[in-house]
Automatic annotation (TrEMBL):
Pfam families: MC1. This is Nonhistone chromosomal protein MC1. The keyword DNA-binding applies. It comes from Methanocella arvoryzae (strain DSM 22066 / NBRC 105507 / MRE50). It comes from the Archaea.
């Protein structure tokens, strides 16, 4: 993969109350978001550790058939789910800069997923 030479970064998963509830690592924020989505979390707010930067994602996971060229350990794991595995998918909504490094000092609206640009209020 393209991430072999890159240094991994740590991202804190933030809930809507502004509390950090987990740490995930990846070369890119998307890598960490995929790990979060694979646990079944759909509204993903990640703070890049050591910075004030927030990354917003919407994620999902779905059961898909195992590819024919999948490694043996994946095929073994899929036998428990009738030959299917969970596959995560995320969409980046945007980024934001926190005012303060300490999470509790920031406005709580930072920790909610912003509406997509083309989305109207009240409709999904």
């Amino acid at each position: 993969m393209a991430t072999e030479g890159r240094e991994k970064r740590n991202f804190g998963l933030i809930n809507e109350k502004g509390e950090e509830i987990g740490t995930f690592s990846g070369a890119q924020p998307r890598d960490a978001a995929l790990k979060v989505a694979n646990r079944g979390i759909t509204s993903i707010v990640l703070r890049e550790k050591g910075t004030k930067k927030l990354h917003y994602f919407v994620g999902k996971r779905e059961l898909v058939a195992v590819p024919k060229n999948a490694p043996a350990w994946i095929q073994d794991a899929a036998k428990k789910n009738k030959g299917k595995i969970f596959k995560a998918n995320v969409e980046k909504i945007g980024t934001a800069q926190l005012q303060f490094v300490k999470l509790e000092r920031n406005d709580k609206s930072f920790f909610k997923i912003p509406k997509k640009a083309g989305e109207k209020k009240g409709k999904k």
